[in-house]
Amino acid sequence: MILGRLLLIQTVRVYTKQCTPPTCNSHGTQPPIVLTPTQSHRYNTKYGVYKGPYCGLRNVHMSFGHDEYLFRVLQHAGTTLPPAALFIIRYHSFYALHQHDAYDYLLDDYDRELLPWLKRFQPFDLYSKSDTPMDVEKLKPYYMGLLAKYFPKFELQW
Questions:
Q1: What is the pTM of this model?
Q2: Helix 109-121 with 83-91: angle, nearest 10 deg
Q3: 27, 47, 104, 115: most buried, per Cβ within 10 A?
Q4: In 10 A of CB 47, how many CB atoms?
Q5: Tens digit of pLDDT for each residue in 19-47?
Q6: How far is CA 93 from the centre of its chain?
Q7: How many domains does the chain fold into?
Q8: In the beta sheet, which residues pair with residue 16?
Q9: Domain range for residue 111?
Q10: What does 48-84 look like in DSSP terms, one character per residue?
């Protein structure tokens, strides 16, 4: 809750819900787990409500932020982006995973196959922007080509 309102979307880093955070959670965005005696003790365990190890990230409840939002918009639009690109979009703010190798016990084979792509992308995410203005008209044909390739319908519903 922020200012008495329920927080439905987070904009910076994502984290798992319904299981204990890892010890490497150094970024400080994981909210404390506060449970009443009537709530499930499973939330305070390593696997939480998930069915044991290696359940796969797509089965883990995460905080909802810009990553998940864009992932869902793109899926709805029928994108032809490869699975690795969608994995990067969905989990690029899950720092505990790609910077600290936390939650390896929740990853399935699919996640393990795509994780190297996420780690390879990471240096280009934060703090990699240039102060030099871009020539939009010069870049426009390139990006329009990408849009045509990966968004055949060219319709995004935000």
A1: 0.76
A2: 70
A3: 115
A4: 16
A5: 666 666 544 444 444 444 445 666 667 66
A6: 5
A7: 1
A8: 62
A9: 53-126+136-150
A10: TTS-STT--GGGS-B--BHHHHHHHHHHHTT----HH
